[in-house]
Amino acid sequence: MKPIGPIPPGFEAIDGELAIGGYKASALVEQAVRTPLFVYSQERIAARISHLRAAMPAAIRIHYAVKANPYLPLLEFMRGQVDGFDIASSGELSLVQTAGIDPAIVSFAGPGKRDEELEAAVVAGVTLNCESEGEGRRIISCAERMGVTPRVAVRVNPDFELRGSGMKMGGGAKPFGVDADRVPDLARQLIDAGVKWRGFHIFTGSQALSSKAIIEAQANVLELAGRLASELGHAIPKLNMGGGFGIPYFDGDAAIELAQIGEALHARLGDLPDELQNTELCLELGRYLVGEAGVYLTRIVDRKQSHDATFLVTDGGLHHQLAASGNFGTVVRRNYPVAIATRFGAEPEEEVNVVGCLCTPLDRLADNAMMPKAEVGDLVAVFCAGAYGATASPAAFLGHGAAAELLV
Amino acid sequence: MKPIGPIPPGFEAIDGELAIGGYKASALVEQAVRTPLFVYSQERIAARISHLRAAMPAAIRIHYAVKANPYLPLLEFMRGQVDGFDIASSGELSLVQTAGIDPAIVSFAGPGKRDEELEAAVVAGVTLNCESEGEGRRIISCAERMGVTPRVAVRVNPDFELRGSGMKMGGGAKPFGVDADRVPDLARQLIDAGVKWRGFHIFTGSQALSSKAIIEAQANVLELAGRLASELGHAIPKLNMGGGFGIPYFDGDAAIELAQIGEALHARLGDLPDELQNTELCLELGRYLVGEAGVYLTRIVDRKQSHDATFLVTDGGLHHQLAASGNFGTVVRRNYPVAIATRFGAEPEEEVNVVGCLCTPLDRLADNAMMPKAEVGDLVAVFCAGAYGATASPAAFLGHGAAAELLV
């Protein structure tokens, strides 16, 4: 038997069915007309953001990292929830534009921006987080070609990392940003070339569950930004401090302590170096804002026995839920939080394997999991599906097509 | 330094550039108008199939597993090259129909076929590889609803595996097929219900590089099919023996020995049990037919230094080449065969990291690889990109969009 990951708190049953945003799972599927279906709850996102704001110092701006979930209705909803947006491609630029988001609150990071992407971003007026000296030159020549003054920040590759993060974005040689010791020179060249100077972007890692590690990384980020500002001799209009706030996916994971992080940050803000006194500080969060607000619903198509194992075969799978299948940069597969949505809260009765419909042994949603007894037609819920789900999975694999999405 | 995987034999340079199907890499990119670009060589696919046919006994039919690469022009080309097609979804059914492929030579396997998929397949006249007793009942009731006699084979979950295969599809509890000991009963029920009986599908694994293991698995498959046929007491019109022929991706991998496999199979065919004397035997191959015929071309957008490491940042990445990035069910990341396409055959001069344009540390195409010195604008080639590339990757991730594809 393998444990199932922790179901995010607050999900309840109506008539024995999982409810999302006040609707029963089966009603949501009816509304979407098909399975598999991603459902995202506005209420849960808003509650998360309001808890976050309550815990953080008032001066801290909250940005949304579009890559976590670029579903258009969700972006439109986020427009009224956060203070800024961070994009990673001209595709995401088009999306935020379609969602009616003001380009002045959008910044664009990414190590491989093409000339066409720089042009689109410069013309739109979004802030470019410059990732290298070469990109700096391309930004300037592109802005000259377009006859526009570009908004530019420098992305810093810090010498430290966010300890215990799922993905390290700093500490050592990295393709992201410019090594800290070369940042003042590059920033000076950009300012001298006449860009609208926006400051620094320092990202240290993602999906950290240690509040202590997040507190330490934030302290290091502020210290580094102050030092770089002092060497540069220019004010820093804005500092994107990165994010890294993780969410629990697996058995034994615990939520981060927002209050502790907020208090430590509050104390730091009272003690900022002169160079950062007038700097707008922001946190860039994706997964933390939307991850636990999403549920993936898939229908059981077959229930079968092979030797001593029971398989629940669903119409979903890794083509929508690559990370949950354990195949996206994972070494040891563990179970995400998973439940039988149409028997939510019922006692676990049997050990089953929940698999997807793809003809590959990689397509697993839960291994050796204790579940209530489910039949063909029941819905399976995979939780923590609001971030890095639909777009972070190979939707075209084996020709089953994309999942439906719904914001409720 | 980490070794690079072996470049498939036969690729040559024209004017110092990698040539594919007689065209220089830069000319192909011009024709496609953009990068990244998958190029598939008809010539290489045809040569592979003709070597395969020469090595195998004449009676063996060759089927193409569409999931390996469902690019429509490639499917249309394959129509004239192979004897049958295997699909895994109704999406792939639409594709083979669009490609003008006769449904009578198509079979459909997959553990989670929905009722709509069964209906589409029954109406089209493709053979359904039945994966469970429950699916058997659904096929029959669906055929009654549609007023059509369905063509049905039974997919067998064998008690043995293809040793050393990248993915095991047999040996123990599996979501695929029906445990061998229950197959005769299910087959009899289907025959009694009046289906057009098509035989067995026995798939034991994929991506095996040991010729001995393939020979052993084929012997076991024939033995099992004979035993099941004898228990069933019915002739077996067709036996899909699976595939599993691997291709070399990594340093140290060697190609399988077709001649040995063909000789062993030839000997087996001379010694078939009575029940299989009139059985049509086929091999279902995907990766082996098209994998080495494909090259992924991506352009270097930035060349940068971080600490003591050099990064070549490309406009491609894991959104098109998930497996090459080492994130698709891989435990230890190793380098695929990779080269600087615009300096093909030049001496390696420096150790570099080739990364994609995605803003995630997972997006790597080659780590610590010795390469000729490359600059912004140069093209990088990732080989073995003909199978499980474009559609087995999260194309929507971070909004960069799909790659172009070209059959030459």
Rounded average pLDDT of chain A = 96
**Biggest pleated-sheet summary of chain A:** 8 strands, mixed
SS element count, helices of chain A? 10
Q: What is the CA-atom radius of gyration of chain A, in angstroms?
A: 22 Å
Oligomeric state, counting identical vs distinct chains: homodimer
Identify low-pLDDT runs of chain A: none
Q: How much helix is in the residues of chain A?
A: 25-40%
Structural domain count of chain A? 2
Task: State the end-to-end distance of chain A.
Answer: 34 Å
> What best-fitting shape of chain A do the alpha-carbon axes yield?
elongated
Share in β-strands of chain A:
15-25%
Which CATH architecture of the largest domain in chain A would you pick? Alpha-Beta Barrel
Look up the CATH topology of the largest domain in chain A.
Answer: TIM Barrel
The chain pair forming the largest interface, with residue counts per chain, is:
A-B, 74 and 74 residues
Structural class of the secondary elements of chain A? alpha/beta
